Amino acid sequence: MKSVHRLRLVIIFLSIALLVSTMLNWFLFIQGKEYYLQLNETRLDPLGLEHYPSENRQNITDHGKTSVVFFGDSRVAYWPAPPNLPQFQFINRGIGAQTSAQTVQRFDYHVKPLAPQIIIVQICINDLKTIPLFPTRKETIIAKCKENIQNIVTQSIDIGAIVILTTLFPIGKVPIERKLFWSSDVAKSIDEVNGYIYSLQSPNVIIFDTYSILADKGVAQDKVAQDLLHLNRMGYDALNRELGHILTNIKYR
């Protein structure tokens, strides 16, 4: 009788192990497929120039409204337009997974033709998240972030736009599958780049402190974090409340 009971326990244990293994393999397959597709899509269009249809790359500004362009990576791509601001026209030009180098090189293609009056910028997390993979290149990666931020600010001012330069969002809690490829240097580099962003404040550059809205003890609050790098709707709602105040208080020359 005891041997039958043990056999049942072994069968149950093996069944659970098989189920867990199957689920883990499926998860790894989905993750691998996602990265594989992303890699090959980038090879076909390294800067993402074809991401937006050609008819959406022209000046589509409603001349009765103030035009605002969101520009950057996936954090921008997911950023919904603030509600209840009918005097503004919002255009999103975010592309997921892009580094600051990719973003800055498509400014002339995706932003300049729109002739926006205001440009909201959020970039660099995709640069800084690679530091654990390339620790010897840490200083170079941070320096290129600063250079590319400055480049976008300069290009924006050159076309007559006011820049709302957002500080980098805080990262969320590191999930177990990324712990081997992560380090505290990412958070430290975010702090360094955010410090540089503050140094760019000027009459044409407004610094939007998103970090203090979203962070709690150095990481994104659970209630606003969708995952390690991205926000949920509550996070964007919190940002949009402050963004609405910033936009309505801009003094145009």
Description:
With 253 residues, this protein is of the alpha/beta class. It has two domains: 44 residues; 195 residues, Rossmann fold, CATH 3.40.50.1110. Helices cover 47% and strands 13% of the residues. It has nine helices and seven strands, in the order H-E-H-E-H-H-E-H-H-E-H-E-H-E-E-H. The chain has a five-stranded parallel beta sheet. It has a two-stranded antiparallel ribbon with strand order 6-7. Helix 6 packs parallel to helix 7. The longest helix is centred in the N-terminal third of the chain and has 43 residues.
Question: Going by CATH, what is the homologous superfamily of the largest domain?
Answer: SGNH hydrolase
User: Mind telling me the C-alpha Rg?
Assistant: 22 Å
Structural class: alpha/beta
> Which overall shape is indicated by the principal axes computed on the Cα atoms?
elongated
User: What is the architecture of the largest domain at the second tier of CATH?
Assistant: 3-Layer(aba) Sandwich
What's the tally of helices?
9
Short summary of the structure?
47% of the residues lie in helices and 13% in strands. With 253 residues, it is an alpha/beta fold.
What are the SSEs and their pairings?
Blueprint: H1 2-44, E1 66-72, H2 74-77, E2 88-94, H3 100-105, H4 107-110, E3 118-122, H5 125-128, H6 138-158, E4 162-166, H7 185-199, E5 205-208, H8 210-214, E6 215-216, E7 219-220, H9 233-248
Parallel strand pairs: 1-2, 1-3, 3-4, 4-5
Antiparallel strand pairs: 6-7
